[in-house]
Design goal:
Blueprint (H helix, E strand, L loop, with lengths): L4 H19 L3 E9 L8 E4 L8 E2 L5 E2 L2 E5 L6 H21 L15 H5 L2 E9 L2 E9 L4 E9 L5 E7 L2 E4 L5 H13 L6 H7 L6 H10 E3 L5 H9 L1 H13 L4 E7 L2 H22 L4 H22 L3 E8 L2 E6 L5 H19 L2 E4 L8 H12 L9 E6 L7 E2 L2 E2 L6 E6 L5 E5 L11 H6 L11 H8 L16
Parallel strand pairs: 5-16, 5-19, 11-15, 15-16
Antiparallel strand pairs: 1-2, 1-6, 3-4, 6-7, 7-8, 8-9, 9-10, 12-13, 13-14, 17-18, 19-20
Helix pairs in contact: 7-8, 7-11, 8-11, 9-10
Length: 481
């Protein structure tokens, strides 16, 4: 539905102010390393730093690529790479809440080699936060956290924030006396199967908050419930038109989108706003720690209630017909329309505020041209002013080609996975092949020049499903109708 120019200008300036306020806190993912997770045995690294050009910056000297696309055959480990990053984020966000006292760590090591079960699993992320590089990582086995560390690199020099081993916690020389006392208390209450970073962040330790906040607020994964994010955006007047425009420009025949709120959803939203306000007041007035703890729990409960209640909201699409406009529910839309609707809210959120959006199998249900245009949104400074990043896995080889005469993906934005003879995943970049800028990467990939494609024999594939003995020898008629 159209809005006045004055209202649109106000919305534009509101988004601009929001971007300016958040810019200082924007972080970028520089690399991710993992070992001994599902099909990943030996350490694999996904690097998001530019190889051929300057890349994009988070506002400082730290630079990264805006998109990283991982290609490979089925069951080669693309989804397992995403799962490893998601598992790391889940541990950071909630190990202190989810851990069972006296229990171990539920992990998924490489099981095709007996050593995988015995060896620890490793997860390491290199981040650029506020102009400073951070390296955070940990190793775990079935019993608990074996090691954990956080380093920062102000002015390019390594500084230890903390190192955790079986012998205890070592703090860097820059950590003050007061912080040392607090870390000593935190160490005493950190269980063996809980990350120190999670507990220290809950204790509001400034030294760890930038990294913790990146994992909790700037790393986002597309899931089947992401439609709720789009529905929330529809409820905001300044973004409704942008959601509609995105769907309209995808040539889906959609003229407008209407959100019908349920009474339960409206009540849950009011309750959430009230509890959040009470928490802010308690923190500002230096209330007792137990009271603040209880209010934080109340906020989490209200958030959960709000998320569940929002599922009762209903979305209707306004589409044109010969008889005029018709209102249709989301459920009757095509899989592609539903997928793009799920994407719309998270896309606008990450492009508006920065961060990393992770999408496994982005080409599922989406037309290749739509996928290519989504990639282009992240590569364009006009649509991605906050330096957001898109990490995706895909089978869509057309993304290695061109759109409008320009490469959809640059050479240092392409990665491949394949499995070795032992069933272990290997991750490697296109840049290892030193491709020319003008070579036909789509054709070369499909032709097997880069590897990471399934080797399928036409004869053996057909023979595997060929009917034995003909239709009259024990083959039910229904099977061949």
């Amino acid at each position: 539905m159209a809005r006045s120019n004055q209202e649109s200008d106000f919305a534009f300036h509101k988004r601009t102010r929001r971007r300016e306020r958040r810019r200082e806190g924007i972080g970028v993912l520089l690399s991710f390393r993992v070992a001994n997770h599902l099909s990943i045995h030996a350490e694999q690294q996904l690097a998001l730093t530019p190889v051929y050009d300057a890349g994009v910056s988070d506002g400082t000297e730290l630079r990264c690529v805006p998109v990283a696309a991982v290609f490979g055959p089925n069951a080669a480990g693309k989804s397992n790479l995403v799962d490893a990053l998601r598992w790391m984020a889940r541990m950071v966000r909630g190990s202190h809440d989810a851990a069972v006292p006296g229990g171990g760590v539920e992990r998924t090591p490489f099981v095709l080699d007996p050593t995988g079960i015995a060896e620890p699993s490793w997860y390491v992320a290199d981040l650029g936060l506020g102009g400073v590089r951070y390296t955070y990582g940990f190793s775990v086995d079935g019993h608990g956290v074996r090691e954990e560390w956080l380093f920062s690199y102000p002015l390019g020099r390594k500084r230890v924030v903390f190192q955790r081993t079986n012998d205890g916690i070592k703090l860097g020389s820059d950590v003050g006396a007061r912080e040392r006392e607090l870390f000593s208390l935190i160490e005493d209450i950190t269980a063996p199967n809980v990350l120190l970073l999670s507990v220290a962040a809950r204790s509001r330790q400034d030294a760890v908050l930038p990294v913790f906040n990146w994992f909790t607020t700037q790393l986002r994964f597309m899931t089947h419930v992401s439609a709720l994010t789009t529905m929330r955006r529809l409820a905001e007047g300044d973004t409704h038109d942008r959601v509609v425009s995105l769907l309209r420009e995808a040539d889906l025949g959609i003229e407008d989108v209407v959100l019908e709120r349920s009474e339960e959803s409206a009540h849950a939203e009011r309750l959430l706003a009230q509890t959040e306000q009470e928490l802010r007041r308690a923190v500002a007035s230096d209330a007792e720690s137990e009271a603040i703890h209880n209010l934080r729990k109340a906020v989490r409960d209200a958030q959960l209630l709000h998320t569940r209640a929002r599922q009762r909201d209903r979305v209707h699409f306004i589409q044109k017909s010969r008889a005029g406009e018709v209102k249709l529910p989301l459920a009757v839309q095509s899989a592609g329309t539903q997928a793009l609707f799920r994407y719309a809210g998270p896309l606008l959120s990450v492009l508006d505020s920065g961060g990393v959006m992770v999408v496994d199998e982005i080409d599922a249900s989406l037309h290749p041209l739509i996928t290519a245009h989504i990639v282009k949104l992240f590569r364009s400074q006009s649509t991605n002013p906050c330096g957001a990043q898109l990490l995706l896995t895909t089978h869509d080889a057309t993304l290695l080609g061109k759109l409008g005469g320009e490469d959809v993906l640059e050479r240092d934005q392409v990665w491949f996975v394949e499995k070795d003879e032992a069933g272990a995943t290997t991750l490697f970049p296109l840049s290892d092949f030193r491709p020319r800028k003008d070579e036909n990467r789509e054709r070369r990939y499909l032709g097997g020049s880069y590897g990471a494609v399934p080797f399928v024999s036409d004869e053996r594939f057909e023979a595997a499903v060929a009917v034995r003995g003909g239709c009259g020898d024990g083959t039910p008629e229904e099977a061949v109708r």
